[in-house]
Amino acid sequence: MPCLVEFLFGVFMKSVTLPLRLPEKLIEEIDCLVKAGLYQSRSEAIRDAVRHLIESKSLLIEPYRYYRFRVEEAIMSSEVSPLHPDKVIEELRKIRKELWLRGKEDCSLSL
After folding, report:
1. Domain for residue 49, yes or no?
2. Rounded Cα–Cα distance for residues 13 and 7 (Å)
């Protein structure tokens, strides 16, 4: 019987078979991880690698998620009554735009 953690992390999500070509050296390295007992199969190791890739790159391609994460962190650690994260992000964007326009004006005045 699978544990709750496995269920929550998507072991039972619908999966799709994907044809994949990898250099032999990478396959050998994956096989070493499996033999060492870190993964039960090549597929599990590759799924874990893909999850880590997505987690590490998501923040780079989705600034909104990054800002929301940081705002939520700040709200949670604040002693002030919390605002909705979307409202805080909207205000931050307005401030950023104002500062950018102000900086742009300053540059044109000095030319």
Report:
1. yes
2. 8
Hey, what are 17's tokens? 């078979």
What was the pLDDT predicted at 42?
95
Q: Sign (positive/negative) of CA torsion 56, 69, 79, 91? A: positive
Using alpha carbons, list the distances in angstroms from residue 85 to 28, 63, 74, 81: 46, 14, 10, 12
- Domain, as residue range, for 100: 65-111
Q: What is the mean pLDDT of residues 14-19?
A: 85
pLDDT higher than threshold 60 for residue 100 = yes
When divided into structural domains, the chain yields a total of 2
In a domain, 4, yes or no: no
Residues 31 and 50 in one domain: yes
